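Sanity check record (used in CI):
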Amino acid sequence: MYNNLNKKRLVKLVGLALTTTLFSGMAAAEVTGEISLTNDYRFRGVSQTAGDPALQGGIDWSFDSGFSVGAWASNVDFDEPGYNGPAIEYDFYVAYGGEINEDLTYDITLNRYNYSGESDIGYFEVTAGMDYKGFRAAYWYTNDYGGSDLDYHYAELNYSYEFVENWSLDLHYGYNVGDALDDAEGFDSYSDYSVGVSTELSGFGLSLAWLGTDLSGDQKVSDGAFKTSDTVLASVSYAF
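Expected output for TIGR02001 family outer membrane protein:
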């Protein structure tokens, strides 16, 4: 009962935020988008494409009021013996953000993850984040991870530093914990991290990173669906 009530409240919040956004300055909306190609789609250290490449794209509407709405999609591969998983992930979000001062900004986002096929694994997740001089800290929470009615918490810290003109060093650390992990995977927490560089060339964004987790033993999946072994991620993107 608790989870169902919270799901209904989240749906109402989405509707309210969307309505507020549309009536708070539709004429002032800025539309941006991005399409990208990566050799592996990793989500919190776990492959969503069984270690294979992913084509991804998104579009965002930003308003002067501080609200924004958007959509994002990628191919996925969750197939396992006896389970024919979804082929497409398509997400929607509504966000609000602003400045505290010239160096410090904040944002709050409601995300909805959706998947093709008949599997009922879609869920809502709330994010709160802050940015300060190249640092970004964010906290993510859902009470229904993967449609399981179980909670999942994710905290992350990122840092981007331009070490030479148009080249950045990108650092990431994330901590995963929740009943959804303990119930489905048999462990209660793990960390993911990455070190990479990124640049822009002729309008294209390029990035290369090494990504790993502290998972070990049976949780260190080396191939197939939900691969978690360390890897090198390369991506190219184009923003419009």
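DSSP finds two helices and 14 strands in the chain. If this sentence no longer matches the regenerated tokens, the check is flagged for review.
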